[in-house]
Amino acid sequence: MTGRERIRKALQFGYPDRVPRNLWKLPGTERYRKGDLEVTLLAYPEDIVQPQKPYARGKREKGERYKKGESATDEGAANGRRLRMA
């Protein structure tokens, strides 16, 4: 039974050969634990997958995804004025 068939059967309240599975990975998992992740996915393949191509970068986006960076509001409010602390 393919992953698609398994999911359809489960959504129709049928009895698939096993419960459909999806590994919800944290963003850093592929970067820092790639070997462990590959071993796990070989043993337990996912039935619910996500598109391989990420969304396009935003016009104001800078830096590398999932790495600590600066916030756009570090220097002040979005309208350019500094925030006052009471």
Outline the fold blueprint.
Blueprint: H1 3-11, H2 29-32, H3 34-43
Mean pLDDT: 80
Q: Bin the helical content.
A: 25-40%
- Gap between N and C termini: 62 Å
Number of continuous helical runs: 3
Strand content: under 5%
Question: Any low-confidence stretches, pLDDT <50, length ≥5?
Answer: none
Rg over C-alpha atoms, rounded to the nearest angstrom:
21 Å
Tally the beta strands: 0
| Biggest sheet features | none
Structural class: mainly alpha
The string of secondary-structure elements, in order, is: HHH
Q: How is this structure best described in words?
A:
The chain has a domain at 23-49. It has 86 residues and is mainly alpha-helical. It contains 3 helices and no strands.
Fill in the keyword field for this structure.
single chain, mainly alpha, 86 residues, 3 helices, 27% helix
Summarize the structure.
With 86 residues, the protein is mainly alpha-helical.
